[in-house]
Amino acid sequence: MSNPYIILPIISQLFTAILLMFFWTQKNTQKAISVIMSLVTLGISVWLLTIVLKNGIHVTQAGSWEAPFGITFIADPLSSLMVLLTSLAGLAVSIFSVGSVRNARVRFGYFPIFHFLLMGLNGAFLTGDIFNLYVWFEIIIISSFVLITLGGEKAQIEGSIKYVTMNLLASAIFLTAIAILYGLVGSLNMADLSIKVANLENRRLVNVTAILFFVGFGIKSAVFPLHFWLPASYHTPPPAISAIFGGLLTKVGVYALLRVFTLIFVPDEFMINLISWVAGLTILTGCIGALIQNNIRKVFSYLIVGHIGYMIAGLGMFTEAALIGTVFYLIHDIIVKTNLFMVSGLIFKIKGTFSMRNLGGLYKEYPKLSLLMAIPIFSLVGIPPLSGFWAKLFWVESGFAIENFMLVAFIIAGSFLTLFVMAKLWAEVFWKDGDKLPKKINVKYFWELKPLKRTAMVFPIVFLSLISLYIGLGADHVIQLSTIIGKQLMDTTPYIEAVLGPINESQP
Amino acid sequence: MELLLVIIIGLLYAAGIYMMLRRSLVKLIIGLILLGNGANLLIFLLGRIVKGKPPIIDDASYVLAEIYADPVPQALILTAIVISFGLQAFAIILIKRAYKVVKTDDLDEMNATDEDL
Amino acid sequence: MKTIIFKTASSYLLPLLLLFAIFILLRGHYLPGGGFVGGLIAAIAFVIHSFANGIEKTRGIIKFHPGFLMPIGLALALIAAIAPLFTGGALMTGLWFENPVPVIGMVGSALFFDIGVFLVVVGVTLTIIFTISETI
Amino acid sequence: MLLSVLSGFLLAACLPVIGKQIKGNLSILLSALPVILFIYFLSFIPGVANGETYHFTYNWVPQLGINFDFHLDGLSLLFTLLITGIGSLVFIYTSSYLKGHVYLDRFYGYLAMFMSSMLGLVLSDNIITLFIFWELTSISSFFLIGFNNDSEASRKSSLLALGITGFGGLFLLAGMILLGYVTGSYSIVELMGQTELIHNHPYFVLILFLVFMGAFTKSAQFPFHFWLPGAMKAPTPVSTYLHSATMVKAGIYLLARFTPVLGNHEYWNTTLIIIGGVTMLYAAIHAVFRLDLKGILAYSTISALGVLVFLIGLGTDDALLAASVFILVHALYKATLFLVTGIIDHETGTRDVSQLSGLNKVMLPVGIAAILAAISNAGIPPSFGFLGKDLIYEATLHYGDWAIVLTVAAVLTNICLLFAGFLAGIKPFIGKLPQKYEKLHLPSPLMYIPPMILAGLGIVFGVLPMIIDSPLIKPVAAAILNTSPDFHLALWHGWSVVLLLSTITIGGGLGLYFILKPSEGLLAKATRFEPISPMSIILRCTRIFESTAKGVTYVLQNGYLRYYVIAILTFLSVLLAYKIFKGIDLYVNFGKLTEITLYEAIVLAIMAVSIVFTVFTRSRLVAVAAMGIIGYSICLIFLFYSAPDLAMTQFSIDTLTVILFVLVLYNLPKYLKLSDTGSRVRDGMLALIFGGLISLLTLEVLNEPLEREISAYYAENAYTLAKGKNVVNVILVDFRGADTMVEIIVLSIAAIGVFSLLKLRLKSIEKE
């Protein structure tokens, strides 16, 4: 059904960013605007998901040019869900930024860029046009470049060079893939592509294009062996920035993979094998990488890689149940990873370091905060019934059903390693006696901050923790939602029909 | 002509990749730019090239004449060029900043973020 | 380079080039050109001026930081893009005035959009170039 | 019912808030919860004794068929009573044991959480819910073992325990899901009806393996037993509650519960007999050499668990009956001994048996409890333990061909266990009281009454077995056997081989007790075998794994950007090459190509030369200039092939890029020749291969016909609908205006980025 207002999540973020640029020098105004507008966007996103679930897929054709001639924006359950998750994480990080981002960074455009980034994410989720997707990706890339280098510290620059290079390489590959796709079928609308690619005779070229897309998106979602930029860079910027990166950026890649490999290139046996192996090795590299790290943010970075592997594994199994699992995990992962990076920021504020060796005694000094932080930590592990657990049910069962024991083994091994890593982290950071550890100087500690700032740092963690508790304990609702999405990923006819109108059955 | 363009595109990709693999940050950025140029030419070529028929409707008529160059790839490339200009400008400035902070453009001196365990 | 001739020439060149830029902007819908190229030409006009007279002078002419052209341009483009939403149409649906305007031709939301592009491009280019020149 | 299971979680959730108020003497009030629950579950006894079972269903995730389905039968009832009963005593005991401890509230929180998880575990009919509670017990155990979190040993032990049980837990999860997949049901009751299907399914062995891994790790079976002695770092109430009476029996519960589903199969029986047998002997012998009271008890617990697994493995009616009785017997005496140990530790400050003796003189009631427990453990009549032991021998003696071997193993185990029990329960209390302990006095009754109750029950049940015979034990056996057995517990069975064996056991054990004196030397001898123990082997494996992980990560994440790029491109090239060359049919359709004119050829030649220049020049500025020429050449190509807008844009962008480069490179030093020839050749090869692949791909795409539906639409409607004549521009601002909108945003962001990158300087306080 047609509805021009589905692009409001994009517009409201863009509006916010432009507004913020007008208040370039007023840092307090900027903070207020950011939080208020994040709330507004959250409201819009809730509205969007509600109407999509109620009335089916909503579409708008930019410029009123009918598809496939203009650019289509489409809100199906998956994309509206992603928009909602972006807004949730966005609101949390916006508040967290108020407490934790230094004024110097605010004066140099932190908030506008942050909202541009969110706009880019929303755009990428809502667009129904492959080239437009590329353009949104570029927004995401450039704003993340700016955010990751904002401050210009040595570590930031070194990390960002890797980040920038890999992402530009990914863009180039993505663009190449689009070029070939256009050269083959002469269309850019994804629903249209879905039909046209399915009708192409030269399957080998289709396969090659699919590989290019896989690698392009694979770099962005950091799968093995394309993930190297992530552990090199995610721990370098300020925690608020890591939080939004860790929670959302790689997930756009996953979203794109899900979208493209269910809608345009339905995986054949070769692709399934490829995706499965990549997924398995991603889980393994990520989790063993996390095992040996000392910097807590690096631990989380590696775990991002490992857990991306899970989601790709769901795609690799390519059954409805496995995709439901992937969607469920996507919801969980965005909330929890964002939260964990904020937790790391809070820990840093309290102790002045990210190094596990030099951390300790948190449980003794801040028992209530520690219990709060335990929620995301153990949710990530998937201690049942917390949120990380449920998706595994789907994957393991699918794995058995299609006799892909390798992936089951990898998922189990990954879960175990995650459990161990997080338990170790807990023991080191929270339990260990903190009295004898070196103290950092020249840091403004948590207890020296104004109460407002402290609240701004703690509240978003509470907020997201409550959500992840809800995902875990109220799993039924989330599973219902994931099921709807999983079904639509397997059966794309409603998507295509929403964009192009009813498909004539007689056509091949 | 297509054949020559195909070779040039291959060369651009190869040169871009080769430059990316060097140790100098400046070469790395140049490599990325070459890669971008290659991709743009690729879109252009794969939209099938037509000589001397720009997609501009002449004064007298209301629609384009029969044989004309495909305007879609042109629009795409235009967008791509502008976007990559933004990214390149940023990357170029990054060289400057990196040089200021790290005092070299040797990429091998910029490994600290992977090393601290 | 900063000869008197160049200085004088550039101060005449500036308005001329700006005019040319606006011309390119407006005719873009019919002939090669458009907001983007127009913006670049305008920016180059200022850059030439600054090479001749120094950045301080050029900034004196513009009065405000060129960076502010960006939000203004973006806002203009955004308004042009979402104007149809208020009447229930889709994003970027063309809204047109009834009658053509001399020189420009048909005036519609697309033109405002192109002007937005123009402003952004000028703002961006000048910001980048000025910032670099200042920090050399 | 749901409330009764979850009440512990609720209590735990409340404690952070109200904990401070009840930290003092009020903490004993918390014991009310387990006591109430105990009474609640007692009320089920009459019904269950009559063969009824109770079922409660509360929806949770009906989508997946995962709900709180609670099923209460004899087996569950026995366990719930143990959990709440011993739980009550432990709660009471703790209020005195940890009196005034700063974190007493947290401790109670964990205990309550554990109790709830355990209740959920034994009551769940749904195997996934069962697994959820299973994992929760592991986690609460992690927190309890690590309770003294300042000590590194304590942290390590808790990690080890979580590592092992969590590892097994995931296997169990897989097993449960697989069971659900095979049978289409997550309900144990329903699974019982599908035994046939499961036994004949090709995945049966896999299911067995997975379930066994879960059970063995949790119940500390060989070779995964070693986490349990480590877990003794926890405060004694925890050892009592979790690591002897309840949690470690979860594995036993699981095996018993699944006996009607998976049991009665050759693989099932053999595996369990072997693992159980090895565990019971191995741990029993180990127990003999320990000096630390808790160490002795830990190993004897492992051994007892081995006995239980062994009995379930035997699988005969006798054996399962013996198992049912032994679960209770063991819980009673072992909990007593642990509580007593706690008291000794609390009062004397040591747990070294060789240091302890004669404590009866200062704490008689404690001594009585300990001695009674030791008697029950030894199986000396008229204790309940005697009954248990009898039944075990009964079971082994009637097990066909292997009866003798199995019986000998059981006797040997029991001898060692008896010894261990005496060492822990009797040795500290008799003999001469060392001088340093003369001033000791009796602890608070809150501490010595609980063990006395437990020990007392051990005797009462022995003398009057009918109290528990049909109300409790029979339904348990019925649940495990899935039929209604016919038997009666009795202390005296008449003269028989079993009695003889009991006598041998007691005699042997006593003999050992009088010959073997625990000493450092003995312990040292035993530790010499440490390097080949499963613990060392497994820990060594994990260390090897960790160093491999380190190695692999170092190699992969080596910090050199170019290797990352190489990895990506190699991956991509291999895949592309594989697909392109698989069934290659490259051809060039010359008819379709446009002709080459001279000036175009010249432009392309210039371009090629510039590319080479850019790559190989030694000067940055030359490279940038050559790059600029490449850009201008592209601009010309655009111009030749009908793209004036593109040409204009390319021209201005190229100029700007070059200007930027020149401004930036202004003060950079010269290129250095940084890479050696080898890597140049390698990179060159890779680059050429990749470029070549792209060229091949392009050629092949060019052969495909291109549909132009979309551009045709634009050509037709650009003027009529969009009122513009420059179609490219119309596309940019109208047809695909959204792209342009985004494009100018990209530019703005880049400008902001450039601005902040060059202007922003952080003060040192702002660097984080």
UniProtKB/TrEMBL annotation, chain B:
Q: Where are the transmembrane segments?
A: 6-21, 28-50, 75-95
Quote the subcellular location field of this record: Cell membrane
GO CC annotations, alphabetized: plasma membrane
Note the topology in the membrane: Multi-pass membrane protein
Q: Which Pfam families match?
A: Oxidored_q2 (PF00420)
**Main subcellular location of this protein, as a coarse class:** membrane
Protein name, entry field: Na+/H+ antiporter subunit C
> In which organism is this protein found?
Litoribacter ruber
Automatic annotation (TrEMBL), chain C:
Q: Name one Pfam family in it.
A: MnhB
Q: Which residues form the Na+/H+ antiporter MnhB subunit-related protein domain?
A: 5-127
Transmembrane portions of the chain: 12-30, 36-55, 67-97, 103-132
Organism domain of life: Bacteria
Regarding the membrane, this protein is recorded as: Multi-pass membrane protein
Q: Does the keyword Acyltransferase apply?
A: no
Under InterPro entries, the record lists:
CPA3_antiporter_subunitB, MnhB
Name recorded for this polypeptide: Na+/H+ antiporter subunit B
